[in-house]
Amino acid sequence: MAFLAPFALIGLALSIPILLMYMLRLRRREVVISSTYLWQQVLQDNEANTPWQKLRRNLLLILQLLILLLIVLALARPFIIVPAVSAGQIAVLLDASVSMNSTDSPDGTRFDEAKRRAIELVDTMSISDTMTVIRVAGAPEILISYTTDRVALRAAIESAQPSYAPGDWNAALTLAAAGAAGSEDYAAVIISDGGITEAVNLPPIPGDIEYIPVGSSGENVAITALATRALPGEPPQLFAQVTNFGLNDAEIIFSLRTDGTLFSADRYTIPAGNRLAITDFPPLQDYTVLEAAITYPAEGTYTDYLASDNTAWTIGGTSGARRVLLMSEGNLFLEQVLRILPDVQTFRGTIEQGMPSGEFDVSIFDRYLPPVLPAGDLLLIDPPSSTSLFAVGDETTETGNIRVSDDPLMTFIDFSTVNVRAFNQITASWATPMITADGGALLLAGETGDRQIAILTFNLADSDLPLQIPFVALMSTLLDWYQPANTIVNQTAVRVGAPINVRLIGDADSARVTLPDASTRTPRGEESTRFFTETDIPGVYTVELFAGGELIASAPFAVNSFDSSESQIAPRPTLTIGGTEIGNEVEEDIGQQEFWSWLALAALIVLMIEWYAYHQRMNAPTLFKPLVRRRV
To answer: What pLDDT does 48 receive?
Structure first.
């Protein structure tokens, strides 16, 4: 232990006057007596009493010296050397993603452990350090800006809560670096379980980046897919996928509830590190909400440390047949796949005659674009030219390393066996790449205005996709994504944190969304299509439409945590950010942890004890009623 202000120890010299006062003071005590006549001799002796007295054992003297010692030590600011981060500006990035709800930490959850580690960093700050705390969830949130106020920093950290969404680390690291622009001494400290793989593609971050890992186990079983499909004239069929991300086999009970009523419950054993596709369900009847859940038998020994991905929901019902227009030079593969898909009514036009009259829910243009694009939803296959919605670039043959996005729209799409010869590099600001290769996007999808558009950037004849099962799955998925104009929500299932569009149909003039916790929100916007982004809790949401204050329509949609990167909860010992591997290097730096505040608190407590002891001594009980008071 050392002292930041050792000269304050000179204050211990004040103990000398305290001792002198106890040696010089006359020790007289008030005593009640009946008369002073018999005490005359004592009074005469007191006149010759010497002021120098031998020190005797005295509780008040000991307490007062102890108070002085504690106050002087507090003023001297003692400290001990502890691991710390050494920098002028410190940005603490607190991982609040869904995996931080795991309960494999001695502090409770991983997020509780992360908060404790963050407070330890606050306690080891030097006088000149400033710190900011950023909560990293679906959108990064600055809990407190750069400050030296340790009390405010601790309060901000203690108030933080985990989320159920994956963390946006690209935005969080960019935000942290922007806040320290121009600083020569800057460090970013990431407190996480390491599930930030998308940050690999970030450019190098200025300053030092340090990583504090939390968590200890990877045992977790999750529902990673849940969907229903109804063929014409047949009841809905269910597909579910359960994944064991742990190192031990897990015995589970997989149960289904339709509109709150138990439908089925079966036992399954899932080997460690394996996925189980479940399709052997009894025929489903009509339902609105289907809930799937994982539980564990009472006699089981498996420990699942993350419960938030053990439940999933899907919405039943169909939206009616879609009117689909196909404009192509004669693509038999497209015609055949549209013929076998349920709830699709196909109208075939000819390029020579141009666009037919009539309204269609979806228009498919295969290597063709009309002079004016229709107002409905679009599926464009290898568009020949640019439009105001997108730009067609050069052709590329860099078709290797095909990757499918983890967007929920692509849950059942597998392109691992698909080969593409070449494709056009197409860009669109409103679209999200759903399937990519080394040279760019093979499939783009998104919404612009009040319609949904998907673009397949290659000619089907330049690939073997039409000859494989993924072609049927892709077309079925895209046509399910498109919604007729009379639907209230554009999707009936989204991932946690994803936005959803709410359409005011009919005479509706307002909308309200009820969350799974029964709270309500209002979608944003003034147009007929409004936006709702507060999908932060897994569960079933309900959209209600009102006309003149009266309820005219409602529709549910489900929000799930289908994210394998978050369900893979095994903590990572290192991170890779901007091409640089980062390990747990915080222990290499040292800091100073002070505890003067505890000494000051102890001094206050001893002072209260001394005050109590003094008044107890002064109020000692007497045996006689006071007649005459004398000091003796």
So the answer is: 47
C-alpha span between 479 and 469 (Å, rounded):
16
Whole-number Cα distances in Å, 611 to 61, 454, 595: 12, 80, 25
Q: Are 564 and 406 in contact (CB under 8 A)?
A: yes
Cα distance from N-terminal residue to C-terminal residue, the chain: 49
Structure token pair of residue 362: 């979806």
Q: Which of 191, 188, 198 is nearest to 213 (CA)?
A: 191
Distance (Å, rounded) from C-alpha 106 to C-alpha 317? 45
Distance separating alpha carbons of residues 159 and 153, to the nearest angstrom: 10
φ and ψ of 312, to 5 deg = -145, 160
What residues have CB less than 8 Å from 171, skipping those under 6 apart? 139, 140
SS3 314: strand
Give the integer Cα–Cα distance in Å for 311 and 454: 30
Measured in degrees and rounded to the nearest 5, phi and psi for residue 547 equal -130, 115
User: How many other C-beta atoms are found inside a 10 Å radius of the C-beta of residue 471?
Assistant: 19
Q: Residue 76 has what DSSP assignment? A: H
Please, what is the angle between helix 15-24 and helix 59-76, to 10°? Answer: 170
pTM over 0.85: no
Considering only CA atoms, which of 408, 223, 406, 405 is closest in space to residue 313? 223
How are strands ordered across the β-sheet holding 186-192?
A: 141-147, 130-136, 89-95, 186-192, 208-213
Helix, strand or coil, per DSSP, at residue 247: coil
Tell me which residue has tokens 């639907």: 487
Report d(CA 94, CA 169) in Å as an integer.
10
Walk along the chain (632 residues) in steps of 10 and give the mean pLDDT of each run. Answer: 67 72 61 67 55 64 79 73 62 93 93 94 83 91 91 94 89 79 77 74 70 92 84 69 94 93 93 90 82 93 94 76 84 86 80 83 92 88 93 94 85 88 94 94 88 92 91 86 71 85 86 94 86 92 92 91 89 79 57 68 81 71 48 46
Nearby residues of 137 by Cβ (< 8 Å), 6 or more positions away: 96, 97, 162, 163, 165, 167, 168, 497, 536
Half-sphere exposure of 449 (CA within 13 A, CB side): 9
Containing 616, the helix (H) or strand (E) segment is: helix 596-618
